[in-house]
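Quick one, probably user error.
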């Protein structure tokens, strides 16, 4: 673009029309991928690596010839961790930028703000973050783990290493409330007892009274679906109170933003998690991905669960476009609904035609020396929670998030 402008100035006004026409054609000859993420503000530890992952995937697609003979162009917006900006930028991407697809959103509230705009404007949408399950909308594809894939695996593993009495600490919004219900279900299914449930707003950072309460109750295990930087304080305060080696800890969220690298080994060692991705996965695909990431980002190693999910989401969309041979939304959806698969850093990812969620591997892990040591891999887990309420093949016009009866 810069070179063309210099040539245009040098050639003079007589060439104005002939120089502008190729630029217009070039702009029309790209595929526009929209992105809305928190790349600044309180959620930037999640959003920045997600943005880096998306751009790495796009760069790799373009380096291999693009899609349908066209290069993919990124149109991105930073919401600055302000929920109000999600709706604004979603409308801008669809009405002004006229993108072909949108990948974005971190918290469930941001997903719902984007999703309804994408549904109304018939713009294909990918949400690539672990969440509470239940979204049923033919216009959206979801690449993150759901409770039936993650919590169902984590609870019996953690109880087997600790005991039957479980205390739950959760974020006070729909992800935390719904996930807490799933934890209670799987605790009961495995012969355990939930002895306490507490919810915390995202800005709460003082857990002293809660830790004292837990000490009084005396559970065998604490499971914490806590979210955000403020809630990281719980794990530090827990260790400072001398509780880490007395009562076992597990979490459905800690580490998805590399929080385990912020905690010291003394604070984090032994905490149990279950995710689709760990940097410690020793596979050819993950080793190649880590090298590509480091090469693209100056040696940076900030990739994490939802960054890799975003990377895999972009690759899944690209595979759908290739299979459709078109950018037409309905054609791409139909192609993805054939059960498109990709092999990503975290393993095989397959689109479930019934729910538009992902069939994927889940890795049981424990924090060790600021890493996630893989203990066991559970291959190709189905999103059975959402499958229980959502069938887009039978009901293609469905458009809601079901709160699954547990």
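Nope, works fine. Designed sequence:
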């Amino acid at each position: 673009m810069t070179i063309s402008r210099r040539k245009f100035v040098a050639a003079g006004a007589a060439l104005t029309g002939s120089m502008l026409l190729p630029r217009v054609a070039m702009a029309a000859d790209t595929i526009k991928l929209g992105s809305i993420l928190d790349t600044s503000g309180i959620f930037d530890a999640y959003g920045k690596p997600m943005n880096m992952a998306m751009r790495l995937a796009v760069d790799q697609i373009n380096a291999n010839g693009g899609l349908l003979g066209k290069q993919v162009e990124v149109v991105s917006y930073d919401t600055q961790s302000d929920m109000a900006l999600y709706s604004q930028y979603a409308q801008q991407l669809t009405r002004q930028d006229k993108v072909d697809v949108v990948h974005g959103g971190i918290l469930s509230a941001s997903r719902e703000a984007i999703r309804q705009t994408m549904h109304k404007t018939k713009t294909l949408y990918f949400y690539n973050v672990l969440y509470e399950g239940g979204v049923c909308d033919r216009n959206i594809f979801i690449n993150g783990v759901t409770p039936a894939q993650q919590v169902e695996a984590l609870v019996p593993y953690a109880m087997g290493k600790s005991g039957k009495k479980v205390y739950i600490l959760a974020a006070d919004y729909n992800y935390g409330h719904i996930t807490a219900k799933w934890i209670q279900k799987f605790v009961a299914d495995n012969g355990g007892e939930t002895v306490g449930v507490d919810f915390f707003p995202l800005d709460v950072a003082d857990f002293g009274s809660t830790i004292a309460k837990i000490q009084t109750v005396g559970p065998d295990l604490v499971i914490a679906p806590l979210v955000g930087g403020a809630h990281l304080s719980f794990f530090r305060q827990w260790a400072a109170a001398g509780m880490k080696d007395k009562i076992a800890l597990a979490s459905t969220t800690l580490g998805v933003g590399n929080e385990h690298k912020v905690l010291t080994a003394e604070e984090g060692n032994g905490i149990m998690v279950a995710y689709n991705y760990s940097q410690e996965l020793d596979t050819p695909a993950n080793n190649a991905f880590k090298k590509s990431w480091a090469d693209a980002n100056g040696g940076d190693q900030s990739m994490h669960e939802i960054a890799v999910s975003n990377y895999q989401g972009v690759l899944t969309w690209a595979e759908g476009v290739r299979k459709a041979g078109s950018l037409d939304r309905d054609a791409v959806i139909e192609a993805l609904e054939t059960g498109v698969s990709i092999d990503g850093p975290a393993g095989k990812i397959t689109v479930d035609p019934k729910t538009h969620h992902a069939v994927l591997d889940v890795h049981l892990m424990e924090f060790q020396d600021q890493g996630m040591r893989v203990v066991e891999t559970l291959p190709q887990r189905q999103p059975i929670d959402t499958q229980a309420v959502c069938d887009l093949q039978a009901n293609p016009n469905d458009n809601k998030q079901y709160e699954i009866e547990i």
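The chain has two domains: 25-145+280-360+381-401, 148-275.
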